[in-house]
Amino acid sequence: MLQQSWRAKVKHAIPPALLNALLLRFPYPYRTKLVCYETNLRSAGGIDELLTQMTTVLDVEGEIIECGSSRCGTSIIMASTLRHKKLHD
Hints:
Helices cover 51% and strands 0% of the residues. The chain is mainly α. 3% of the residues are buried. Helix 3 (46-56) packs across helix 4. It has helices spanning 6-13, 16-25, 46-56, 73-88. It folds into two domains: 1-36, no CATH class; 41-89, no CATH class. The radius of gyration is 15 Å and the shape is elongated. The longest helix is centred in the C-terminal third of the chain and has 16 residues, at 73-88.
């Protein structure tokens, strides 16, 4: 079993309702490496695989929608990637 990082230990020590309330009231930590846009796609290449698949359909007309979000970290990562691609393509 992988050892939990200190961030994960702190996160799990705080009751979810309190953590949600704090992050909604003070969203600044999301812009730091401390929180770094929390996502539940931490499994073997989860976020990398999502971003790879997302970039393969950028030429398709339409919108990209994320369904089912926890704290919207994955949505922010996706939006940042799309913004970066748009500026550099």
